[in-house]
Amino acid sequence: MARRAAPEVNAGSMADIAFLLLIFFLVTTTIETDSGISRKLPPPQDEEVPPPILKEKNIFVVELNKNNDLLVEETPMELKDLREAAIKFLDNGGGAGEDACNYCQGSKDPSSSDNPTKAVISLRNNRETNYETYIAVQNELVAAYTTLRNREAQRLFGKTFVQMEKELKDVNYTGNKESLKEDIKKIQFLFPEKLSEAEPKK
């Protein structure tokens, strides 16, 4: 009796189907990217350079403890008041002579910062500080710089600093991008973002 041949499954199109599925998943899948804090690290230095000497009045100390309590200049403060306090410090303009600030609109308190170019915000936190609180504090401090930059950009160029940065990134921008870059640098020079982060406390 002749043996019957077992029927074969036609797998010729399996490679095509697998390839089509692969393309489908590549096209439809969204890849999540972690958002972080935009910070520019200082360039590496070949030789040790001593840190610049800072007057204590030009340093604005912001601390976060392990209970997420905010201390500004050793005084308890609510997060909602931090931006205004930072603006008041940065825009004080209490310097005289070379340190004088002719564009500052602050109270010119001699016991506070001399000039925005000299002012440094020092952020210190505890290792047990909540990450969300830490980011919220960072946002408020950066927002203080942005507020002041917007004000100066509006005064000098008739548009906000945020608008200028958007125009620089816009591929359809018809103006002179080199001139726009220079204008942005001028505003950044008037209010440089000097945000110092100390080693977290244990």
Which percent bin holds the helix content? 25-40%
User: What is the element string, with H for helices and E for strands?
Assistant: HEEEHEHHHE
- The parts where pLDDT drops under 50 for at least 5 residues are none
- Indicate the overall shape: elongated
The largest sheet has its strands arranged as 3-2-1-4-5
| Number of H- or I-type helical stretches | 5
On the 0-100 scale, what is the average pLDDT? Answer: 84
* Amount of beta strand: 5-15%
Q: How is the main sheet built?
A: 5 strands, mixed
**Rounded to an integer, what's the Rg over CA atoms?**
27 Å
Structural class: alpha/beta
How many β strands by DSSP? Answer: 5
Count of domain modules: 1
N-to-C CA distance? 86 Å
Q: What would the keywords be for this entry?
A:
alpha/beta; five-stranded mixed sheet; 5 helices; 202 residues; single chain; 10% strand; 37% helix
Task: Summarize the structure in words.
With 202 residues, this protein is of the alpha/beta class. It is 37% helix and 10% strand. The protein has helices spanning 14-28, 82-90, 131-157, 161-169, 177-190, and strands spanning 59-64, 70-72, 75-76, 120-125, 195-197. Helix 2 packs across helix 3 (131-157), helix 3 (131-157) crosses helix 5 and helix 4 (161-169) packs antiparallel against helix 5 (177-190). The longest helix is centred in the last third of the chain and has 27 residues, at 131-157. It is elongated. The protein starts with 13 loop residues before the first helix and ends in a 5-residue tail after the last strand. The model has no long low-confidence stretch (mean pLDDT 84).
